[in-house]
Amino acid sequence: MKSSTLISLAVGGSLVPALSVKRDYNEMEHLALIDCGIGSDGVSKSRQLMYYSGNPWDGKNNWIRPEMMVEVPWDGSYPWRTTGTSIKMPNADIFTVTIDPAIPDYNVNNTRLAGEASHTYDEHDLDCYASHQSDVYTLDDGTKCSSAYICNHFMTDDPPKEDPPKKDPPKSIRKTKVSFSSMTVYVEQKVNSPNKEFTLVDPYDAFHNIFDDINGPQCNSYPYPIGDSCTIKFDDCNFVDPEGYAENSTANALGSLLTESTGREISKNVNNWISSPSTSRFGASNYNRRFTYPQNGQVTIYTALSDNPDSISPQSWLHYEIECQKSRFCGKACQGYASAAFAFGSHPELPWVNLLGVMISGVCTQCA
Q1: I need a surface site. Which of 47, 64, 335, 348 has the fewest CB within 10 A?
Q2: What's the distance, CA 168 to chain centroid?
Q3: Which residues contact 185 (CB under 8 A, 6 or more apart)?
Q4: β-pair type (115-119, 46-52)
């Protein structure tokens, strides 16, 4: 048990009670016999008798302020003895304590009581058990006190019942997974002159449309043009976060992960080429630019409790879909994008990483 500091008002050497002791029987009352200022020779400088109308400790096993406390005068011998000691409390109640110091501390292997206590305000005696614990209390002058004996009304049949320490509730663990389809699509543009600028949307800008599409806890699901015949749509979003983060914070975290990692990774793999006149409809060369996207992908935040980390459930997510009029094909690009998102999302210096939690390795779903 941890020590507690006594805040007292002394009158005639005794602690004035904050609450007076009732004359009615109180089955929950406790009497604590403590030794203070124990030196290296094992001898205490003072002995105190503390009265509680309930438990001497709180729910975390910290000793609390007694309602009455009296220093036991030294009469030539240790007061916790078989011949007994009588002490008058500030409310005029007189406690008589009889203790056998040869009885060891009470526990499941030793259920012998060390003695008893009686008082004039109530005919019900208290049973006393030995409980020697160091530094459970601190007097006003800084003197450390150790418990010696504790008396109550429910020790005859049962061992001492102390309130168990309260366990902290399990904490939630945040995990984020990125997944992309192995079905890839070409998003491309053709121009018929080398002097004509390409207007093909950069993948970073394509994914950045998410920030225009966010609408509270959801997305608007607008199709955004990103190529000659392709659009990107954020078709399934849920930004509701049960842990108190604002919806826009969660949305920005998911959007940033998708934009900053996957968008930039796809941008690196731009493919430019000139088609031959024989393949052109009008017999002239075409200038082509192409990006290869995973057809769809999703970033998901899961939560799990610390005492059961394997039981995760989705809480927030962002899904996109790219639609093109032209053919698609299955490729191997997905794994590179998933790995890039995983690495980028785990970066410790990014301001929104704490919203994402632990990154789970990226996943590539199979071709349909």
Answers
A1: 348
A2: 8
A3: 230, 292, 293, 294, 295, 322, 324, 326, 328
A4: unpaired
And the tokens for 360? Answer: 């789970």
Helix, strand or coil, per DSSP, at residue 135: strand
pLDDT tens-digit map of 150-187: 999 876 544 445 566 677 777 777 788 888 887 888 88
Q: What is the DSSP letter of 79?
A: S
The two structure tokens encoding residue 290: 């192409």
Tokens of 233: 């749509």
Q: Could you give the CA distance from residue 113 to residue 7 in angstroms, rounded to a whole number?
A: 31
Q: What are the distances in angstroms from CA 319 to CA 148, 239, 296, 331, 367?
A: 66, 11, 7, 20, 17
**Nearest-angstrom CA–CA distance, 223 and 90:** 82
Can you count the helices (H) and strands (E) in the chain? 6, 22
- pLDDT of 290-344, one tens digit each? 888 888 888 888 877 766 766 677 888 899 999 988 655 666 667 677 777 777 7
DSSP states of 261-302: IIIHHHHHT-EEEEE-GGGSTTSS-EEEEEEEEESEEEEEEE
Put simply, whether the predicted model's pTM sits higher than 0.85 gets the answer no
- Per DSSP, helices labelled H in the chain are 203-208, 210-213, 247-257, 264-268, 333-345, 353-356
Q: How many CB atoms are located within 10 Å of the residue 162 CB?
A: 14
